[in-house]
Amino acid sequence: MQGFKLFRQGISGSSKLSVSSIVVPLAFGSSFWSINAVALPDPRWGHGAVLIKKNLYIFGGKAGLKSLNDTSQNTGQLLILDISSEFQRSNPTWVIGPLGPEVAYHTVSVGGYQNELLVVYGGESGETPPPPNSLFYFDTIAKNWSIPNITAPSRRREHTAVTRLEDASIFIFGGIPDSSSIVVSSQVQYNDLYQLQTRISNWIAVGPQTYTPSPRYHHTATLLADGKMYVIGGFAGSAMVDTASIYIYDTINGRWDLKTAGGNLPSQRRDHAAVGSN
After folding, report:
1. Residue 67 pLDDT > 70, yes or no?
2. Coiled coil where (predicted)?
3. Rounded CA gap, 259 and 29, in Å?
4. C or N: which end of the chain has fewer Cβ atoms within 10 Å?
């Protein structure tokens, strides 16, 4: 049976993070530095995470401060955790990979012929004007970063991205421009959908349809095994989206649809998380 789980907590009123900051020595000897830590690395938010084979990769975000505010600096740090064997949650062995672009509120996805690529798209650059490059690959086999020589869609942040593993296609939806104002009434919001064919580094724009969702950001997009992407919640216009409205994009047939959910509906929310179960 297919379905998905919507995590309850999104943006909360607390300004404190529960993760403890630590200072640890780094050991030289390869392109990776190993940290035998007694806690998680520095607190961060606005980062991305993806599972590629046996490793969990956490990249970017804002790090260094223990309160939620945008004065924190973006980081290009890549954290890697091997989850193929048991480890102590109080003392995980983190590995730090090569530095990448310093971005936050981006997406991190899997791609490539062998599902070996970590694909970073968009995000807040912290630069004015934003840099032209918004698409980056990290090869988890060769252990290096590269910038594909293709023209990406307009740079954005707080969008969503899901990967169809069968052909390593990434579907990117919504978001707001990198340079967008924090004032909601003056924001530009996107509802365009793009398919990135990572095996040949090619973008395909999906045109508007009858049931294309309204422009939004801070939503979730979840891809199930049947190839359908479910878009839930977020912020559209100047209000949060009703969780009864479930937008579904069929990545195989290329069509949007709209379903209305019933039952005990969750409250409206944004900046939440969702995962699929088959």
Report:
1. no
2. none
3. 54
4. N
